[in-house]
Prior knowledge:
Blueprint: E1 3-8, H1 16-31, E2 35-40, H2 46-57, H3 63-70, H4 72-87, E3 92-95, E4 102-104, E5 113-116, H5 119-126, E6 130-134, E7 137-139, E8 145-147, H6 153-163, E9 168-173, E10 194-196, H7 197-205, H8 213-221, E11 226-230, E12 239-242, E13 255-259, E14 262-271, H9 276-286, E15 294-296, E16 303-311, H10 315-329, E17 333-337, E18 340-346, H11 356-366, E19 373-377, E20 380-386, H12 390-400
Parallel strand pairs: 1-2, 1-9, 2-6, 3-6, 9-11, 10-12
Antiparallel strand pairs: 4-5, 7-8, 11-12, 13-18, 14-16, 14-17, 15-16, 18-20, 19-20
Helix pairs in contact: 1-4, 6-8, 7-8, 9-10, 11-12
Magnesium ion binds next to loops.
Amino acid sequence: MALIVQKFGGxxxxxxERIKNVASRVMATRQAGHQVVVAVSAMAGETNRLVALVxxxxxxxxxxxxxxxxxxxxxxxxxxxxxxxxxMGCRAKSYLGWQIPFMTDDAFSKARIVDxxxxxxxHDLDAGYVVVVxxxxxxxxxxxxxxxxxxxxxxxxxxxxxxxxADRCDIYTDVDxxxxxxxxxxxxxxxxxxxxxxxxxxxxxxxxxxxxxxSVELAKKYSVPVRVLSSLEENSQGTLLTEESNxxxxxxxxxxxxxxxxxxxxxxGVPDRPGLAASIFGPLAQANINVDMIIQNxxxxxxxxxxxxxxxxxxxxxxxxxxxxxxxxxxxxxxxNPEIAKVSAVxxxxxxxxxxxxxxxxxxxxxxxxxxxxxTSEIKIxxxxxxxxxxxxxxxxxxxxxxxxxxxxxxxx
Length: 413
Ligand code: ADP
Ligand code: ASP
Ligand code: MG
């Protein structure tokens, strides 16, 4: 008997028919003799609908109340799934975040997990129940409802698996695994049989929304074996997340990602003195705005330009914060461009192969795509380009790195 956490995303529970399909899968696992904890998202489109209701009232809403509203979608789906399971003769019990309790900090709309109390779930599992937990939501120390950020049910599922020391965590979605790139952009993208935690971390942080990045961080930290599978296909093979040492052959590039969710900001004419970068990024950190790529030019005649990217959703607030900061430090001006995209190539094999950057730049050049920013890490290269070239860049790079071909040890023929 194993303890298995299964997570079903929005599309998988998007209709009553699909909820019945999920219930059948859960029941089959239960009948095979396993204990099952299920994490569920809101029905497809529901969280977007709730966010739009909030935004229709005011752009500067109270984040605590935002979480109260957007957490509501998951309450419906856990209840519906339990009703479906019970109607098939499978005993099931639903829990909202606060009932577990699924403890988080109080960073509303992007709360971080502090503790997941396993006691009630263990008790129910031992009594023969399937435990169905609302993904995406938690509760802070003052009993306020919190949410984990968009796509957060993946993180809920992995946190449940880690807390309960589950044998595995199966993430069911609408594609049958992690692909060499988003299969909706490149239909000939191929499913990877395995991917290392580090590659998946990069892919998730660079725009592959198939898994929320924090779910991958947690999986790596607690060595949770995670599989990504399709709930819509009968015999989905899926992709296994694993340690790099378990991967037979390291291909140079294993995936291409894109992210339209960032905006570019340039502070021009910053006096070149110690402490001024801190005066720019300090106020952004105080406003809880994450900065991603940063470029600082060499100083010409005692001044420099600093360019960086922030999440799209934080762009307006970042510009407001920086209007003040640029005046205080005496910078010349502030420029913003929200119409950019970050396109990246990821692969652990880059550690030992050269020439990837050159191939990437050459490919983009031959498509006439201008590169605005570049950043690299050991296993990825990212470029910022004009948003309108996103899909073209992804397709061209997928072709250039021959990702539609067989990859020994990664993609079976
Ligand atoms: P869920 O609602 O199940 O959480 P999501 O919509 O959050 O599902 O994530 C699944 C989607 O991720 C897919 O439909 C696909 O379009 C997208 N995606 C982006 N990059 C990739 C990739 N490299 N491999 C697989 N899917 C990807
Ligand atoms: N329902 C939430 C969202 O749409 C959480 C999730 O689906 O993972 O972001
Ligand atoms: Mg998701």
